[in-house]
Task: inverse folding
């Protein structure tokens, strides 16, 4: 499976724009909110490293290994974060939604939930995926709760899965949504956005 497309995905709360270097300045501002990069269990880029991170993601896109977006909040018109399709399976229509982060000001707005609805719709309805995966750090409890709230099911934990920049071992929690589960998940996401049940999203 190759991730060669560059679609714009638009909703009422957010628009996912194909990532470009034009987004760097606003991404720096977004990451600077509450100094998000300081959380040891996340991999949010430091503002000074944002150009390098955008370059890395665009390079992976050129190789068909990542589809990166910048997230624009409709209510303010500001870029508030990034998200991607990544780690496409070589032998199946399966990928991961990951490398996602949002500015603190976008939390509780429904931005994350609608972005995931847009991405999942594209993955299942356009790319015909059989499953979509999510991964997060064991200690990132907010992320784990938010992923479960989407309707994803926890598949398990990879113990001592990787080593962080500080040398600490990371346990990775894996979640997924399968194609057979997607219709119910889609209904749940649409309902929560309509009723604004997204306090953690």
Result:
């Amino acid at each position: 499976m190759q991730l060669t497309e560059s679609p714009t995905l638009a909703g009422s709360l957010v628009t996912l724009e194909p990532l470009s270097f034009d987004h760097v300045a606003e991404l720096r501002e977004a990451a600077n909110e509450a100094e998000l990069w300081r959380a040891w269990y996340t991999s949010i880029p430091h503002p000074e490293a944002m150009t390098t991170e955008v370059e890395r993601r665009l390079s992976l896109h050129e190789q068909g290994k990542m589809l990166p977006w910048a997230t624009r909040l409709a209510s303010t018109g500001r870029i508030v974060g990034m998200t991607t399709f990544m780690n496409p399976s070589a032998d199946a229509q399966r990928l991961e939604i990951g490398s996602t982060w949002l500015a603190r000001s976008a939390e509780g707005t429904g931005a994350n939930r609608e972005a995931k609805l847009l991405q999942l719709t594209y993955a299942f309805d356009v790319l015909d995926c059989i499953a979509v995966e999510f991964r997060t750090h064991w200690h990132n409890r907010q992320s784990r709760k938010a992923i479960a709230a989407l309707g994803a099911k926890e598949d398990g934990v990879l113990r001592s899965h990787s080593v962080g920049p500080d040398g600490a071992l990371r346990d990775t929690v894996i979640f997924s949504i399968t194609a057979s589960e997607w219709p119910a998940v889609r209904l749940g996401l649409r309902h929560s956005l309509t009723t604004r049940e997204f306090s953690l999203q």
The CA atoms of residues 4 and 140 lie 30 Å apart. The helical segments are 24-32, 50-62, 111-126, 141-150, 182-195.
